[in-house]
Amino acid sequence: MSPLVFISHSSQDRAIAIKICDALERRGLGCWLASRDIGPGENFQEAIVKAIRSVRVMVLVFTGNANHSNEIKKEVALASQNRLVVVPLRVEDVLPSDAFLYELSTRQWIDAFDDWERAIGRLAEQISGIAGEKGDAPAHPSAGAGPAARAPRAWAAWLAAAAVTVLVVAGGLAYWIATERAPPAATATAPSAAASPALAPHRDISGKWVTETLINPYDRNQKSMLRFEFEQSGESLFGTVREKGDFGASVKGIERGQVKGDDIVFYTQGVSTTGSAEQTYKESYRGMLKGNEIEFVRQNDVASGGLPQKFTAKRE
């Protein structure tokens, strides 16, 4: 199958990269893997550049090894230059270094160290969605498409144009004959504008948005600010939510993000600690785009919490 996905990984994580490759290819998503697809004697760097230019998605196998790999930093930079969607798959619970944080701050992270099958399912679903939005056409035209290859197309286009001209002339002649013989027809009433409503303009919220100072609904003495970095592709929304306040700072990836008209929906995941026990929770965001602002309601699913918090975000 034709490679759709470039798998970027540290050479020390080859086994896990092969496992991810196998899981995606069983789902019909072709992958390019350096350790498998670079032939003997082939230039390593040239092969990687060509592969990145030919695919549509890069899956970054993120581990402690990858976090300190200069080669992976180069591959991610090349992906950005070629406008590839980069999907980081965290195989280990490792926070990115500053260099990776800069490159991947607007990407949606998928954690695979808690539930492998669920993570791979989400990864395959996201890749399929990206491929569907970009269509089946190759990202770059073939280098061999020179004048000789274009000549048959030009000839076919000339024939098609000639055929259209003949049809137009014939149709005009038939219309003239019909109007000469037929009695004048009543003037048709113009269709109502309601019969064909105008489509709503496409709304793209990609970019940075920031809130005013927020009051913690559980402790009114604590304050924070939110900064959203959105990356929209069609109706899909990716990115991060950064929260900085009196209690510290955090960066969370946006999950299941959708933009439909003026409605915005997504959630993030966090961990709360009670004594020595840790509990994973979700924070759901529902927003309404109004002019140059987004009116949000945020609510978590913690058993002891769940208070809704309303706020407004503006473009930074």
Written account of the structure:
Helices cover 33% and strands 32% of the residues. The chain has 316 residues and is an alpha+beta fold. The chain has 2 domains: 5-134, 3-Layer(aba) Sandwich (Rossmann fold); 207-315, Beta Barrel (Lipocalin), CATH 2.40.128. An 8-stranded antiparallel β-barrel has the order 6-8-9-11-12-13-14-15. Strand 11 (255-260) and strand 12 form a beta hairpin. The longest helix has 35 residues, at 147-181. It is elongated.
Please state the second-level CATH architecture of the largest domain: 3-Layer(aba) Sandwich
Compute the separation of the termini in Å. 43 Å
Whole-angstrom Rg: 27 Å
Shape: elongated
Helix content: 25-40%
What's the helix-strand series? Answer: EHEHHEHHEHEHHEEEEEEEEEE
The total tally of domains equals 2
**Approximate strand percentage:** 25-35%
| CATH level-3 fold name of the largest domain | Rossmann fold
